[in-house]
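dumping this here before i forget
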Amino acid sequence: MLADSPPPAPSPTRLARTEWALALAAGVVALALHVRLFLAAGPLWRDEVNTVVVATQPTLAGVWDRLDCESFPLLPFALVRLWSSLGLARTEAGLRSFGLVVGLSCVAALWWCRAGAPSPPLLALVLFTLNPVVLRWGDSVRGYGLGALAILLAFPAVLRAVQNPRPAAVALAVVTATAAVQSLYQNSVLVFAMVVAAAVVSLAQGRRRHAALALGIGAAAALSLLPYLPVMERARRYGLVSTGESTPGHLASVLWRALGAEIGLGAAGQLLAVAWVAAIVWAFVAVAAHPPASGRPRATAFYALLVLLIAIPAHFAFLLYLGFPTMPWYSLSLVALSAACLAAVLPGESTSFRTSALVLAGALLVSVSPRVFSYLGLRQTNMDLAAAAVAGAGPDDLVVVSPWFLSVPFHRYYHGAAPWATIPPLADTSVHRPDLLGRALREEDPVGTLVARVESTLRGGHRVYWVGLPPPAIERPPDRLPPLRGPLSGALEGIYCGNWTLQVAAALKEHGRPAEPVPMAPHRDPQPYERARVWVTTGPPPQVW
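structure:
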């Protein structure tokens, strides 16, 4: 009996139709995920509030003066300010629509990176579309989505300008590279990777002038950052209170989350991150096994792989140099650049590679998208509900917000009569002010007045509300720490803020009844980076003689 013959390989026409059909399905899924987030995200979390406050200062000079309270250059704030001037930022939904436009624009820009390939950038599109970090933080009212969008536009523009240096192409490369660094400071290392890779490809082709042009595009982008040097210096000095120990292992774990293995995604997130790493390795294998014959496809492939080889270690080195506590959204632009490189290389011309990419992309869409859809149902914050829960507090009560950085969303959403303060008390709670925290670290007793207010409020029989993270359990009053005389650091900030929090908690325990939780209105869970709760401590009733 004859053995069954293997099934015939799909014809190129049928394979191409299937690729385009799945790419269309991925586009529909992308639209559904972005709209899901737009409808579910709700109020702004603390960093988004910070962006809006800085962007809507009375004058542009005021915006510039506030940049040292932020992590971005001017462009994101200028665009949010323009959005506001058009009357589109009067509500939270109006501000969320700004993020929705940016997020969908990133998906569209990824198609531009396919370098004229006849097949769609299927695997890159699916990996980028399903990434929860790209979705939630790219669509947030911050500069991360804009930075990713500019990188996606600059990636093909730089190579096209170098390969065919017409005035319009060169101008577009300069504009997009400059927009990238003006959106996000760390994009400077990614633009560096692009221009160096383009220069190397040009030199390999014997085009020295074209290589110099590539470096000139990078130089133009770099020069645009010169006005920020004083801002960077002030931010660096203030930001020392937020620096911490940043190790390669820590950065690798955070990058793993940035590839999809975000908190709350479970096995689906791990699968997505594995698929990202496999696709990047696959891109190198695909080019090594089936290198393009010559011409533009060959230059594009080697440009894309060289960009990856430079960008990933340069990004790591930049974050290690800064020393800031790293979050997954810090790597959003690197993820976007990786997607652009994959779009330029994969699936290639090999039928086997294209078929494998088709199968993997379809499997990811089916297995991961439901879990991502559920994750996007989380609110950005519940601080609006926490503020509403204490809105009934009277003028003789007191509200304490802890940790101090939660004061920014509380300032936006609280409209009650009771006075409130952070630990330590800060003169400006509308934006993040690490400079004020740094001054508090140098003071003799920065929480003494707050402790006295807590004690007098409770002795009068009134209530002290605690908003934020749970008040710490305390056995005995802590010793007061001396003013900090040495250099600032994130570790010392944590020690001092912890000590101040214990001092306030000790006053609550000594002068009030046991704290009781205050219910908030029923709501969907917020994302894990900003989940507040509310407690109330009541003083004993005043004695009547």
